[in-house]
Amino acid sequence: MTQTTTAHALEPRWQPLCSLADLVPQSGVVALHEGEQVALFYLPDTEQKVFAVGNRDPKSGANVIGRGIVGQLGPDLVIASPLYKQHFRLADGGCLEYPEQALPTWAVRLDGEQVEIS
User: Fold this and answer.
1) What is the rounded distance in angstroms from the CA atom of residue 81 to the CA atom of residue 71?
2) What are the structural domain ranges in the chain?
3) Which residues does UniProt call coiled coil (predicted)?
4) Is it the case that residue 91 has pLDDT exceeding 50?
């Protein structure tokens, strides 16, 4: 007997998180999503516009990433941790100085004036 299975790509499950008016351009705002603190960064001059990364700094354990400084190092848009100043890529959460450190990331999108997270 032969069994055939078909893999189906999972569609993202988009959920409203906040209003675009809740975000501050070039800065971080923290929201709670499914029990996790998510740092949202609104960069209106970029293609993606909004980025979502974990708010917990993996080096210190403190929930401070949303207070970090947004910048660009080479081609990477980054957030600098306010405590130890390590830089995390907004696109994938990877740390430039310490590859073993990373922030979780979430897919986010704008639906009109609504910020949605998946």
Assistant:
1) 11
2) 15-117
3) none
4) yes
Output the CA torsion 40→89→74→60 (10° steps): 100
The listed CATH number (1.10.10.1400, 3.40.50.300, 2.102.10.10, 2.30.30.140) that belongs to domain 15-117: 2.102.10.10
Q: Evaluate if residue 2 carries a pLDDT over 50.
A: no
CB neighbours of 105 closer than 8 A, spacing ≥ 6? 51, 52, 53, 54, 91, 92, 93
List the one residue out of 80, 26, 28 whose CA is nearest residue 52.
28
Helix or strand run (H / E) with residue 53: strand 50-54
Which pLDDT does position 9 carry in this prediction? Answer: 56
Burial classification of residue 81, based on how many CB atoms lie within 10 Å of its CB (0-12 exposed, 13-18 middle, 19 or more buried): buried
Please report which confidence band the pLDDT of residue 11 belongs to, taking 50, 70 and 90 as the band edges: confident
